[in-house]
Design goal:
Layout (H helix, E strand, L loop, with lengths): L1 E3 L7 H11 L3 H6 L1 E8 L7 E2 L1 H14 E12 L2 E10 L2 E12 L2 E10 L1 H15 L2
Parallel strand pairs: 2-7
Antiparallel strand pairs: 1-4, 2-3, 4-5, 5-6, 6-7
Helix pairs in contact: 3-4
InterPro entries: NTF2-like_dom_sf, SnoaL-like
Organism: Pseudonocardia acidicola
Protein name: Nuclear transport factor 2 family protein
Length: 132
């Protein structure tokens, strides 16, 4: 994989996802995924299935994250990676979004985060939002 600046992105769906997330537009971000998309959470073992589940999760994420920003991106034949930093409560969190696409549509999103203390805070806050 090679590092890409915003001007040299190779993946149109990934570029559109980044723009939607940076604009806080959850609906636009979710619409880029196939209806049978898969989301791999950094804190839940079983993958989430479907665009609507992904939309719900992204909606909760924009409520939990503060000072979110992408720092770098990497593009290759197997996918696109966006590195980010944010805050969850009083914890600094660093992570990556791994995007896979097929035929111009995103098919999969895997999120990985660190450090553990921030991941556990993320898990607690997301659980509170998603379980009502």
């Amino acid at each position: 994989m090679t590092s890409q600046t915003p001007e040299t992105r190779h993946s149109p769906p990934a570029a559109a996802f980044r723009q939607a997330i940076e604009n806080g537009d959850v609906d636009a971000a979710a619409a880029l995924f196939r209806t049978d998309a898969v989301f791999h959470s950094p804190v839940v073992h079983k993958p989430y299935q479907g665009r609507e589940a992904l939309r719900t999760i992204l909606g909760a994420v924009v409520q939990v994250f503060s000072d979110f920003r992408y720092l770098a991106e990497f593009d290759g034949p197997d996918g696109h990676v966006l590195q980010f930093r944010t805050r969850v409560g009083d914890r600094d969190l660093e992570g990556i979004d791994i995007l896979r696409s097929e035929g111009g549509e995103l098919t999969e999103l895997t999120v990985m985060v660190r450090p553990y203390s921030a991941a556990t805070e993320l898990r607690a806050r997301m659980a509170a939002l998603l379980t009502g």
